[in-house]
Amino acid sequence: MSNGNIQRMLDYVDSQYPQFTQGIKESIANAPEQFDSIANQYLTWALIARGENAIEKSIDAYVQFTMDVNFAQARYEASGHYENKSFEEVYKNHYSQRSEMDDYLWGVYLTNFLWAHHLEICLFFENRFLSRLSSQPSIIEIAPGHGGWGVWALHKLTDARLEGYDISPSSIDIASSVAKAAGVDARTSYQERDALDLKSLDENIADAVICSFLLEHLEEPTKLFAVVNQVLKPGAVAFITGALTAAQVDHIYEIHHESEMMAMAESQGLRVLETLSTNPKRLFPKAKFVPRSMAMLVQKPRLVK
Predict the structure, then answer these.
(1) 20 to 30 A Cα–Cα from 1, which one of 36, 161, 226, 230?
(2) Residues paired with 206 in a beta bridge
């Protein structure tokens, strides 16, 4: 790979969306070498999955997504609460709109490295989570979304296998296309299924679980940790992220404190091993709500004989 993909992306942002250049430079400055590695890989997969205009189309989607997030956060600052309270509302207004969801997911895909605080979480994922796994783990990904997290895991762990479950047809299609672009599709299996309806899966089957930014989309997020506990093998570890006081049009559950996420995990019998809480550098003046992204490593306790 070459840095040509990154330069092409930066040139397009500079010419079409110069107001977004500073934020991207902040991400690059945080970890230049790691940024290059992750960005190059993600952009290469996007080009294979979406065609020759993938970088430009994905940047367009990223800009729209970021603007939508900023507007939603401004409305949250004014009202003091998220706009939607139920999955039914969000599904009707957003998830059922296929073209809107496709752009949404490709926009989120780029935030993994273009948002400086999300790049921090990517490095935490690689350095603290993937480094714990065996060379041949069986991974379950709950709500893979754009698929980038699970595909990155398979890219790094060349003998790993992954099963992904997502309620969105757009997610299944895009995650599958990213896996194929990365050449790991033979080691993946994606199914359209409710993340909280995995009770038919056997217990103690996963060496690891990945679940990124699902909690805030659920009416009862504690149930997610029960699912994680069910599928993890004793002693196995899950990587889970969530958004705190961070509004988006499809966020329905407000998490205000990092301790709330930890308490949810602990209430379902999981042990919290490590956490990372990050936030954007630039916030609304006199913001009442600081939007944060939190990553956790949680472990299913080993059986005591």
Answers:
(1) 161
(2) 232
Interval 248-291: pLDDT, tens: 989 999 999 999 999 999 999 999 999 999 999 887 778 899 99
The pLDDT of 44-71, averaged and rounded, is 96
Place of tokens 């800009």: 63
- Judge contact between 46 and 54, C-beta under 8 A: yes
* Three-state SS at 287: coil
Residues 298, 209: Cα–Cα separation, whole Å: 10
Residue with tokens 């790979």: 1
Residues contacting 283, CB < 8 A, separation 6+: 290, 291
161-166 vs 138-142, strand pairing mode: parallel
d(CA 29, CA 140): 33
* Token pair for 102: 């496709």
pLDDT at 1: 37
Angstrom distance (rounded) from CA 16 to CA 72 = 23
204 Ramachandran zone, left/alpha/beta (phi>0; psi -120 to 50): left
Pairing state between β 138-142 and 271-278? unpaired
Task: Using CB atoms within 10 Å of the CB of residue 112, give its burial: 0 to 12 exposed, 13 to 18 middle, 19+ buried.
Answer: buried
Cβ atoms of 294 and 276 within 8 Å: the answer is yes
Give the separation between CA 44 and CA 145, rounded to whole angstroms: 18
